[in-house]
Amino acid sequence: MKKFTRALIGATILSMIAAPALAETLTIATVNNGDMVRMQKLTDDFTAKNPGIELEWVTLEENVLRQRVTTDVATKGGQYDVMTIGTYEVPIWGQKGWLVSLNDLPASYDIDDILPAIRGGLTVDDNLYAAPFYGESSMVMYRKDLMEKAGMEMPDAPTWDFIAKAARAMTDKNNEIYGVCLRGKAGWGENMAFLTATSNSFGAKWFDMDWNPQFDSEPWKKTLNFYIDLMNDAGPPGASSNGFNENLALFQSGKCGMWIDATVAASFVTDPENSKVADKVGFALAPDAGLGKRGNWLWAWSLAIPAGTQKMESAKKFVAWATSKEYLDLVAAEEGWANVPPGTRASLYANPEYAKVPFAKMTIDSINSADPKNPTVDPVPYVGVQFVAIPEFQGIATSVGQQFSAALAGNITADQALSNAQALTERSMKKAGYIK
Known about the structure:
The structure is a single chain. The protein is of the alpha/beta class. The protein folds into two domains: about 20-135 and about 300-355, Periplasmic binding protein-like II (D-Maltodextrin-Binding Protein, domain 2, 3-Layer(aba) Sandwich), CATH 3.40.190.10; about 140-295 and about 370-430, D-Maltodextrin-Binding Protein, domain 2. The chain is built from 19 helices and eleven strands. It has helices at about 1-20, 35-40, 45-50, 60-75, 90-95, 115-120, 145-150, 160-170, 190-200, 220-235, 245-250, 265-270, 310-320, 325-335, 345-350, 350-355, 360-370, 395-410, 415-430; strands at about 25-30, 55-60, 80-85, 125, 125-130, 130-135, 140-145, 180, 255-260, 280-285, 300-305. A five-stranded mixed sheet has the order 2-1-3-11-6.
């Protein structure tokens, strides 16, 4: 009896010691995009395979997410164990030692299957510092029925002049039909992602080869005036408050003739459960102005592990699960191939089932047409298509975005917005030591 009692006590003590290890909770910061929300619904698959790990989600609007994770990672605060970050942050934070290398993910993960354009943007000194959850460029999504009603036909590779003409022709404000919906909400990853990519196609650039800001140039003036005039004529009311999610809702409800935005939106606008126009949507490459560059960006929302985490091994298990080939198969089985997170793996685009998805080819063509190392018509000292890969860009572009959003709202003129953008960017670049 004594032996049994001692054994029972010993077992109880061991179970008490082991208990905390069996209840490790990962705190995951993510953006409130549809693909991320869908992933949260499917995580029973992960927790079933990893019974010692629980998940706690912090789901935030894009601009808020960026602010919080930047503060946390810079201070090694340890608030998050996995964070959703983009192609802009990864090389900068990886270089600073703020992120954990993912080079030791298991062989079954197949890092080499990640598309080269996407993998390259997440790699520093041969270390993969984030795993892409989905990759994207931008493209034109349009209502085929409204285009036909306007007596026009969308080319596969349209010009901005065609887009402007079609948008005005499709607009019927009395019936709340707006020819084009574009981002207007201020933010370096909101309106400035769209406007920077657009400006590339108009021959504009953020900086010359000596890092002097270029907002006082004719190409930037042409870009901003084209955008504001088009939105005033053919855009929805209150456009200066509209980001990705707001424009998605407008398009799905049938109020937009065209929407130029992230390729990842294609699965949402063609989803018959959520989109009133699901069977009427066509796709085309982002427009150009005849100068050799299209107005499309290159981005990946990726999962990274901050160096401040105390749960590195569990975090790696989650990152590997959420960005694996098997996860893509899981989404396909549960939600259909059209809803699989796009733009990350070569094997997806080699899959004949996925090739049947109507936007698959246009998505990969758009991704392949973006060139982050040569984003502009003229040479520039930076890389990045819809951003400039320097630490100061986030703050500068947020301020510039506020100026451009104010111009769209009619609170200041386009010329005033460009003048203000030039002054604040010069001031910041002098303070940072890029120019004298």
